[in-house]
Amino acid sequence: MSKPTLRAYIAWIAICIIWGTTYLAIRIGVADFPPMLFAGFRWIAAGLILVSVQRLMGNKLPPKEEIKHLALVGIALLGIGNGLVVVAEQWIPSGLTALLMTTLPFWMVGFESLLPKGPNFNRYIFIGLLLGLSGCFYDVRKRFAALDTWQLLTWCVRIDGCGYCLVSRQYLFKV
Question: How many CB atoms lie within 10 A of CB 27?
Answer without folding.
Answer: 18
